[in-house]
Amino acid sequence: MIPDRLTKNWGLKVISLVLAIGLWYYALGEESIEVTRAIPLKIEIENPQMTLSTVSTRMVQVTLLAPRAMIVNLASQDISAVHKVGADIKKAGDYSFRIEPSEIHLPNFPIRVTHIEPEVVTVKLDELIVQKLEIQPDFTGDPAIGYKLVESEIKMDPNAILAQGPKGILESMKSVKTAPIDLVGRIRSFHRTVDVRLPPSVTAMSGALVDVYIPVREEFDEKEFTDVPVRFLRLPEVNGTITLDPDRVSFVLKGSKRFLEKLAPEDLTAYVDLGNLKKGEHSLPLQIILPENVSLKDKQPILITATIASSPKN
Prior knowledge:
Blueprint: H1 4-7, H2 10-30, E1 32-45, E2 50-55, E3 59-67, H3 71-74, E4 80-85, E5 93-98, E6 104-105, E7 112-117, E8 120-140, E9 147-149, E10 155-157, E11 160-166, H4 167-170, E12 175-182, E13 190-195, E14 203-204, E15 209-214, E16 216-218, E17 220-232, E18 241-245, E19 248-256, H5 257-262, E20 269-272, E21 280-285, E22 287-289, E23 294-296, E24 303-309
Parallel strand pairs: 1-4, 8-12, 17-20
Antiparallel strand pairs: 1-3, 2-8, 3-7, 4-6, 5-8, 8-11, 9-16, 10-15, 11-14, 13-15, 17-19, 18-24, 19-23, 20-22, 21-24
């Protein structure tokens, strides 16, 4: 049998138990814990004649103390550090400062900064200047075999840019490169609109895009062929012995480099036409069967002396 003391006022006891459990969860939710996050550091220069040249770090580690119930929300919040360099700083040089908890931009709920790493940040300030920089295209790879980039015909619009940045950096720069332009396998000219690549502390005062015309042309070359045999196209009407002088020739061909590189002497046919010739000595122009895109360098015809004589009698 259950004692009366356990069953007496049981309703109040149940309510007390529920309140105790709720209070425990509330206390648990209010327990604060520490979390560490890496956040971006922004430097604001209030003197318009000065600019940031370098900074020892762009990120800082902050340790935050927040209620346990807020930790999930904290993970999705934007937190950053902003330090202002006052307008009284008017000389170029290195400056060090501490990031204060008040410079950490926090979300609007109970949260406290307990530690900041690094403790000291060093920046280099410089005079802000404007300078004109020539734009140079940055090419990667090579066109297809037998084709080349014609550098003298490259066109860029614009071909220079006005850049603003630290004096110490800009004064050492004469030009700036574009983003890489891939030439691999190209067989014809093309256009590309690309960015101009500037150092982190330098900005373009006008647009940072440049339109580049990249001329790609077929490459031409010359190649010498030696000891190419001279053949007959047709025999003369009369019987006899035939002597050719010279019976082998050498010449230079010009044309498409990709065709010339593959061409060998045995691929060429050099001949003279002996048809309708009579006995005697004849000066004949050499004929050469050539592939497309290839021609003789020397426009003067090559002359072959053909001698047709009677066959010796037995």
